[in-house]
Amino acid sequence: MGDAFGGMGDAMGGIGDALGGLGDALGGAMDAMGGAFNSPEFRDASRQLGRMAEDVTRGIGQGLGQSLGRGLGQMGRQMMNAGQDMVNRSTPVDPNDKYLLPAPSMTRQYVRAGLCWWFGACFGIAALGLLSEGVHALFYALVSAAIAVPLVLRALKATQEIRLGRAFRACRPVLLSQPAITVERLAQAIGSQADKLRGQLKEFIARSWIPEGHLSEDGVEFLLTDKLYSEYQEAAKEAQRKAASAKTLTPEQTQALEEIALGVARIAKAVEGLAGEAHDKFDRTHTLASQIGAEARKHPETISKLGMFTSYYLPTTAKLAEAYAEIQAKPHASADEQAAAQRILASLDDVNKAYEKLLDSMAASRTLDIETDLTAMKSMMRQDGLAE
């Protein structure tokens, strides 16, 4: 009710301004009519009549519009404030409610739009009717049109405010329950279009209806608070960092992978001519080295932990495998060579255990990265309202 009185006051103020403009137009028209005749008496009389019409019309219009507008507006504000106090006392407080202003009342805008559309249409129709009367009614048609145009403009502005208020009223309960949500999902929830809603959200932020609201840089996500926006930015940066590291290999990483592949190939060739216990042990060494290389290719970030493996352990193991195979291939190996071969075979147990530990440490590092990814994903899901 308070907003209705306020809207009536605004509309009456607009009508008063329009009537004032009508007085100006009448005065000007009478002056023009006086100038159209040569008789000084007629010219003086028309000027006096024009000034009288101007004064009377302006006084009535401005006095009526401004006085009634101020009175109704003040009454409306008082009633609106009293009603809002009652609502505030009876409405439960939502934890996120402090991040959203109360939904604006559209009653004033409805009244303003209705009255302005009505009077604008009346004066517009009158202007069209007067145009059909001929040239002698042209002046009155122009005056009616001059009154209709500002009323229609006010009606259009009030209609835009109504649509914006409706959108905010629809978004408010959704944002209270899902303080981080994609614009697409929010648009689906309120039955709107994402592109249209994106512009309305920017207007909500600009008017401080959502004081801490943020749209993501790409316009995909809407976040209700500064804290959520900060978490979103951190998660996005972490995802970009991981994506960049997964796609790009440094020259050092490429070289390390090539050295691992070469060492694995040398061991595989040495194993081909072996049999029995020696074959089983060297085959296990080959399998572990291959798994370490595969893990490094899948997760290049782990290559930095393989410095000694690529530069010393693997090349030395390949050299020992080749030496053992060479000794075993001799028909008559010396006693020293046979003793050396036995030491190589015995050392493979320690080598394989070391490779197993290295592979486990790479898996542990990858598990830590997975935990980091899960934490980031859960944070994003909370922001989108998909998890608590």
Written account of the structure:
There is one protein chain. Helices cover 80% and strands 2% of the residues. It is mainly alpha-helical. The protein has 2 domains: 2-164, no CATH class; 247-383, Four Helix Bundle (Hemerythrin (Met), subunit A), CATH 1.20.120. The chain has a 3-stranded antiparallel beta sheet with strand order 1-3-2. Helix 1 packs parallel to helix 3 (107-131) and helix 1 (2-35) packs antiparallel against helix 4 (138-177). It starts with a helix and ends in a 5-residue tail after the last helix. Residues 1-7, 25-39 and 82-94 have low confidence and may be disordered.
What does the secondary structure layout of this molecule look like, with pairings?
Blueprint: H1 2-35, H2 40-90, H3 107-131, H4 138-177, E1 180-182, H5 183-190, H6 194-206, E2 214-215, E3 221-223, H7 226-247, H8 251-271, H9 276-298, H10 307-329, H11 335-383
Antiparallel strand pairs: 1-3, 2-3
Helix pairs in contact: 1-2, 1-3, 1-4, 3-4, 7-11, 8-9, 8-10, 9-11, 10-11
- Roughly what is the average pLDDT, rounded to an integer? 74
Oligomer: single chain
Please tell me how large the radius of gyration is.
43 Å
- Order of strands across the main sheet: 1-3-2
Number of helical elements: 11
How many angstroms separate the termini? 41 Å
Give the count of structural domains. 2
DSSP helix fraction: over 70%
What class, by secondary structure content? mainly alpha
Major sheet summary line = 3 strands, antiparallel
Global shape: rod-shaped
Which sequence of SSEs, written as H and E, runs from N to C? HHHHEHHEEHHHHH
Could you tell me the number of beta strands? 3
Which parts are unreliable, with pLDDT below 50 for 5 consecutive residues or more? Answer: 1-7, 25-39, 82-94
